[in-house]
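job 3f2a | input accepted
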Amino acid sequence: MEFFNEIELKKIDEIKSHYPESKAALLPVLWMVQEKYGWISEDSMKKVGDLLNIPYEHILGVVTFYTMYNKKPVGKIHLQICTNVSCMLRGGYELFKYVSDKLGIKNKEVTADGMFSVEEVECLGSCATAPMLQVNNQNFYENLSQEKVDKLIDSLHSEQKVNNT
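job 3f2a | predicted structure (165 res):
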């Protein structure tokens, strides 16, 4: 199986064209890898390094520095719960514990069926509407309570079941 297809390689060339050197394209290319595969593996870091002519050690440093990159597989539904100051003051830690207990997993773990993973994260930029969580790096849910989270998880689980049939 090819790592990047022809369309993706053209997109990478387009990204690289915006910068004086290919190293500057590393973050968006890593994001492409994560969007495609769900996480950044050691093998994928090496392939990106070959593609951009960047040493593996540099890429490893970038991937381990930025929390937005998953260093291991995540669930089909990845819940990121903010526990930074505003969310903490409005129940972020309690919400994180509630979701973890409900799903039976700890921080950065995946449920046995591979459906859900949960991660405690720093600021997601919704301080005025805390506590909040993000689903799959794209959908934000704010002003959360345990009841709202129960409904959200049930809804996400139902949607995923429908999409898999």
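job 3f2a | The mean pLDDT is 93.
job 3f2a | closed
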